[in-house]
Write a structure and sequence with these properties.
This protein has about 80 residues and is mostly helical. The chain has 5 helices and no strands. This is DNA helicase.
């Protein structure tokens, strides 16, 4: 690591560290909103972009269990997806 790269990494850490928790929470909130948008058609909410979000279902399946637990649902709200 060069001297300038080390300085840049230290500077980035200096500015990023105080907001690490806030940024992580904002990222999680955005991912939760994205998950709800993708699953909205399955949850009964009309979605004009449902055709396009259908292609994203395989991508969000990995995080589906964590998402519904974080939203306060003990079991999967969808009959078609039974993760627990």
């Amino acid at each position: 690591m060069g001297r300038m790269a080390g300085f840049a990494a230290g500077l980035r850490e200096f500015y990023y560290a105080p907001y690490r928790r806030t940024l992580a929470r904002a990222k999680r909130d955005e991912e939760d909103l994205f998950m709800m948008l993708v699953l909205s058609e399955s949850l009964g909410v009309p979605n004009p972009a449902g055709y396009y979000t259908l292609e994203l279902l395989p991508v969000v399946f990995e995080n589906f269990h964590d998402w519904h637990r974080r939203m306060g649902m003990d079991h999967s709200p969808l009959d078609s997806i039974s993760c627990c």
